[in-house]
Amino acid sequence: MILNYAILLEFLNDQNVQGQEVAEWLGTVPETISRIKNNNKNMIKGIAPENFYINVFCKKDSLKDYQGIKCLYSFLESKDCITDYIHNEYLNYEKKYKIDSSSAAKDFLMTILRETSYNKNKDASESKKANQLISAVQESTATSIRFNKFKNPIQNNTFFGRKKMFDDIRRILEEEGTCIVYGIGGLGKSYCSLKYALEYANDYSQIQQVIFSTDIKSTLLKIPFNGLDESHLTEDEILEKRFSILATFSEDTLLIIDNMDIMPADKDNYERLKQLSMHVIFTTRETQIDASKFQLPIEPLSKEEQLELFTHYGQFNITPEDLPAYYNLFEMVQGHTLLLELIAKTMAAETLTPEEMTAILYSPEDDDISKIPIEKDNQYQQEKMNKFVSKLFDTSKLSDPQKEILMKLSLTSISGIRQRLFKQLLSCDNSNINALISQSWIIQNRPGSADSFKIHLHPVIRSAVVNNTEPAIENCHSFTYKIVSLLKEAQNSISICDKTDLCDIIANSSDMFSFGIKDIDLLFDMAQILWGNFFYTYAYKVYLIGISILKEL
Q: Are 486 and 425 in contact (CB under 8 A)?
């Protein structure tokens, strides 16, 4: 059964909360609540989940205590309204209750309220329009519209181990259709999903990868399709059209959604995507995105595989006598794949011994085992790995031009930027960029000709770079101004992909920088550019930043 407000009002009635009370709390008349209970009316316009939580559930403590939450879950279970996601959130509530009962109750109740659906009562004209659109797409374009041809960015890369991981991904996809690969950043989740795509390429007629962006809707709008004309459609119509196209794909289609490190706000679209026949792989740092049957943890490589990876990147000749020192180093970084690669290349470049590298990475607080029991969602382990990367950043003796390159590149999104375009904006030659690529500080993807090579930072490295270089409007003004000028003056000569990558930089800058009155003109230009390239949320945010600065005058 679809969870809606009629069901919630029925539950409240069972808890001796009458419709007249709810009407009073929500500032409406009892007749309106009665019509909602009878499924003859949607919830009152303007009553968002937060309003309902504050004005109804917060009125009686018995609705928020442990017994009240348990009763609600049992009631929804009896109505067959419990999805995998709601069940998972209830398990989270059970874990959090003893630590912070108030916060745990609010999180669970807000989950229920956000999940509440109005599907039964959708406006008839909107429903008819959507159905017509879906039917038209399915009948006329299902056979002609496909993903753009996918060029796997790791096709020529060296990969170590994880054969069983690929088998497990395949098993979960065949059983559930959706596989969620999770673990801390830098263990190889993205590479593993892409390597799976290579290993099973013959089983798929089409494959595509897209980087997660805020929510499922925004992410699906980024998928590159071939032969798809959406110029005449609104954003919501585009989403519906894309869902209808995706619904025609079968198990021989693979979609990889990378770096979904938060639960998407539009959970209905997430559940909708999971119901499709095609195979979908998500990669995430979160440990509780969904039910366990969908989830697959990525584990460190075996000691033998770690040694193979290490000697490959460092070109070391390791004797049996040296092995204990190297294994001690591997254990210290817990087999973290990205760290092992960086350490190997740093040791080779700086001619360091494993004992010297261990001394560089060691911190007394790492011996404090009292931190381990409070680890939550891999947070402690992730922070520890981030500290190691920061220490390597300091140890690597990077030149000032190289640090500047990394700082500017930290403003890009995970999808990166064309290397030639970045070089043009920074007015630098390729030698320093290539040196950083060879040392694994920068990732280079080669989807085609040299002109299309893209570069970006791994999220873990990006975090270390941001912490160590502190990008700000003062040290990135020239770079930001060049991007704004390029988008203003050469708008029609820039490819859509380049525009998107440059707008990502502007959007990220608006998140990271602190602006002042001297930046008002730049902020105005940034907002206009973002709006003109459909980055509406960021455009609005930049406008608000400018307005707040002007109000302080």
A: yes
